[in-house]
Design a protein that fits this description.
Elements lengths: L1 H10 L10 H16 L84
């Protein structure tokens, strides 16, 4: 969606709302893209409407709405240790370790973990 909004606001100046100033073009482009995916017309793309396997706007699936993680050379850090009082499990953290070394792509991909981790709290 972000790519289509970007194109509507900055690239399709003649075909998408010509003569409308910048802030309003941005809001209108966002509303137009949400309307294409929003099946019940409430102005919000909920989980079932944005499901990657659902079809909306004449496309077979919603893969176009998502950016693959490999397109951005960054990653999110989450807490995986339940330390009780400090932060809930999997809460976003503002600290992280810098990974040092080289990225080694694996093909075909292998699962990062399999089965249960044994943490049944």
């Amino acid at each position: 969606m972000a790519n289509e909004i970007f194109l509507d606001v900055y690239e399709r100046i003649v075909s998408f709302e010509p003569g409308v100033p910048f802030p309003q073009r941005l809001y209108d482009a966002y509303a137009a893209e949400v309307r294409r995916v929003d099946l019940n017309g409430d102005g919000v793309v909920n989980a079932s409407e944005g499901d990657i396997d659902s079809s909306t706007d004449g496309f077979p699936d919603n893969a176009r709405l998502f950016l693959p993680a490999t397109i951005i050379n960054r990653f999110a850090v989450t807490r995986e240790i339940n330390d009780g009082l400090l932060a809930p499990r999997f809460a976003p953290s503002q600290r992280g370790w810098i990974l040092n070394g080289f990225l080694a792509p694996v093909s075909p991909a292998v699962p990062a973990s399999a089965g249960r981790d044994g943490d049944d709290r």
